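tokens incoming
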């Protein structure tokens, strides 16, 4: 008789097997829940890390822009003079002062 014991029909056997799997399915459901929780924590930590790096890059970029603005102000404040002879004299004096170092 197809491997069934006497007096046990197929629907009864299926119900018994399914009932035995109920505990196993509960364990799989718990493991799946823990994996989802661990994944959510991992995603939160990674998000915080990358957000911090992004904020740090923005602060660095702002600092560099502020330095550029200050440098540009100093450059604009310098009287460059329009006379080429004055410019050559200034370059000679600068070159001489660098040699004296």
């Amino acid at each position: 008789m197809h491997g069934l014991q006497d007096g046990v029909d197929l629907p009864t056997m299926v119900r018994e097997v399914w009932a035995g799997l109920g505990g196993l399915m509960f364990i799989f459901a718990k493991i799946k829940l823990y994996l989802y929780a661990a994944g959510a924590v991992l995603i939160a930590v990674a998000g915080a890390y990358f957000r911090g790096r992004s904020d740090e890059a923005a602060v660095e970029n702002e600092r560099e822009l502020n330095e550029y603005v200050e440098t540009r102000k100093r450059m604009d404040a310098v009287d460059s003079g329009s006379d080429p002879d004055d410019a050559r004299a200034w370059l000679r004096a600068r070159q001489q002062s660098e040699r004296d170092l």
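note: The chain is about 85% helix and 0% strand.
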